């Protein structure tokens, strides 16, 4: 058995002040501490450490379960043999004991297995992780998810890629639209994209950076989950945000939700008209401007009518002569 010491030592070198387990794998006590170390490692030695798998547990009871199931040893063996068994290079491991980690990622059950690829997390959604911590299953999951399956959309690309208003000829789209300050659903959303990759296109829009898309669908909440299917828009209003609940909505239960017909996006001219209309409605000078413009238009029309009447009168007078 050949231990890939380079990967471990690179990580441990930056973690000298942190606790490690018996195999030398770092044990962090906060997500912020872990992320800071990850960023340092991947930035300084990206050729070696590309992907980091994290086993997170939030309390003593969960930690005891991790110990009794031998999860630490499985993690060690998996990283040690990742290249020859799963074809994954540059894989490192870490443990995280942080009671707030699951909540911050909208995760319920403990422990959580998270894979970070270039800083972007995906949660393991295999069945019964707390009962069956299988090295082969997890290794296959890692090798299948080294790249993200989420499509990132913007104001400019949304309609072109989704074709939402024309019947979604590119397929059904499940899209998470959120502000930068919302609770982090990234790890779950990545797992959903992985699960649905053969049946749906899973997308994401940061509406803080793309306000036109938010305006188009009248989004006022911090985050919204929409399914676009055959020119219709279904809004998820459920309370559960785990992978199973969201996948069920995308594939089955959306039929139980109300839908709206997706209207085409506004043309540049329509946008200008709408902006002017909104300004007239909301601006303190809007009413004054509207009255002034209306008066000018009325005066102009009245002038034209009077001029036309005068010309008709002059023509009639000439004929009488």
Summarize the structure in words.
The protein is an alpha/beta fold and 321 residues long. It is built from 13 helices and twelve strands. α9 crosses α11 and α12 packs across α13. The longest helix is centred in the C-terminal third of the chain and has 35 residues.
Compose a concise summary of this entry:
Helices cover 44% and strands 18% of the residues. It is an alpha/beta fold and 321 residues long.
Topology (elements, then pairings):
Elements: H1 5-13, E1 19-20, E2 26-28, H2 31-44, E3 51-57, H3 60-68, H4 71-80, H5 82-86, E4 91-97, H6 101-104, E5 112-117, E6 120-123, H7 135-144, E7 151-152, H8 158-162, E8 173-178, H9 186-195, E9 201-206, H10 211-216, E10 223-229, E11 232-235, H11 243-251, E12 259-261, H12 268-282, H13 286-320
Parallel strand pairs: 2-4, 3-4, 7-9, 8-9
Antiparallel strand pairs: 1-2, 3-5, 5-6, 8-10, 10-11, 11-12
Helix pairs in contact: 9-11, 12-13
Summary keywords:
six-stranded mixed β-sheet, alpha/beta, 321 residues, 18% strand, 12 strands
Question: Uncertain segments of ≥5 residues (pLDDT<50)?
Answer: 1-16
Number of alpha- plus pi-helical segments: 13
Oligomer: single chain
Q: What kind of sheet is the major sheet?
A: 6 strands, mixed
How many E-type strands?
A: 12
Strand content: 15-25%
The helix-strand sequence is HEEHEHHHEHEEHEHEHEHEEHEHH
Could you tell me how far the N terminus lies from the C terminus, measured between alpha carbons in angstroms? 120 Å
Shape label:
elongated
Instruction: Estimate percent helicity.
Output: 40-55%
The whole-number mean of residue pLDDT values reads 80
Secondary structural class? alpha/beta
The radius of gyration computed from the alpha-carbon positions, rounded to a whole number of angstroms, is 30 Å
Placed side by side, the strands forming the largest sheet appear as 1-2-4-3-5-6
């Amino acid at each position: 058995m050949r231990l890939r010491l380079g990967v471990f030592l690179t990580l441990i070198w930056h973690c000298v002040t942190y606790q490690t387990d018996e195999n030398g794998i770092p044990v962090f006590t906060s997500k912020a501490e872990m992320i800071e170390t990850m960023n340092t490692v991947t930035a300084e030695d990206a050729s070696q450490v590309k992907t980091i798998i994290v086993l997170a547990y939030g309390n003593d009871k969960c930690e005891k379960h991790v110990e009794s199931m031998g999860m630490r040893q499985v993690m060690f063996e998996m990283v040690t043999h990742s290249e020859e068994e799963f074809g994954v290079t540059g894989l490192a491991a870490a443990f995280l004991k942080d009671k707030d980690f699951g909540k911050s990622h909208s995760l319920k059950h403990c422990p959580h297995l998270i894979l970070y690829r270039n800083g972007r997390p995906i949660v393991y959604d295999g069945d019964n992780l707390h009962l069956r911590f299988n090295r082969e299953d997890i290794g296959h999951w890692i090798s299948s998810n080294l790249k993200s399956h989420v499509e990132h959309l913007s104001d400019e690309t949304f309609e072109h890629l989704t074709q939402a208003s024309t019947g979604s000829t590119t397929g059904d789209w499940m899209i998470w639209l959120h502000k930068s300050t919302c609770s982090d659903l990234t790890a779950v959303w990545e797992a959903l994209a992985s699960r649905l990759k053969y049946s749906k296109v899973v997308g994401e829009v940061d509406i803080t950076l793309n306000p036109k898309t938010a305006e188009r669908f009248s989004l006022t909440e911090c985050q919204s989950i929409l399914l676009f299917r055959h020119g219709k828009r279904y809004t998820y209003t459920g309370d559960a945000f785990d992978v199973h609940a969201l996948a069920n909505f995308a594939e089955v239960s959306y039929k139980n939700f109300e839908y709206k017909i997706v209207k085409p996006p506004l043309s540049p001219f329509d946008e200008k008209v709408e902006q002017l209309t909104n300004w007239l409605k909301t601006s303190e000078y809007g009413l004054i401007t509207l009255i002034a413009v209306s008066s000018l238009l009325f005066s102009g029309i009245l002038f034209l009518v009077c001029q036309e009447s005068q010309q008709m009168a002059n023509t009639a007078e000439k004929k009488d002569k």
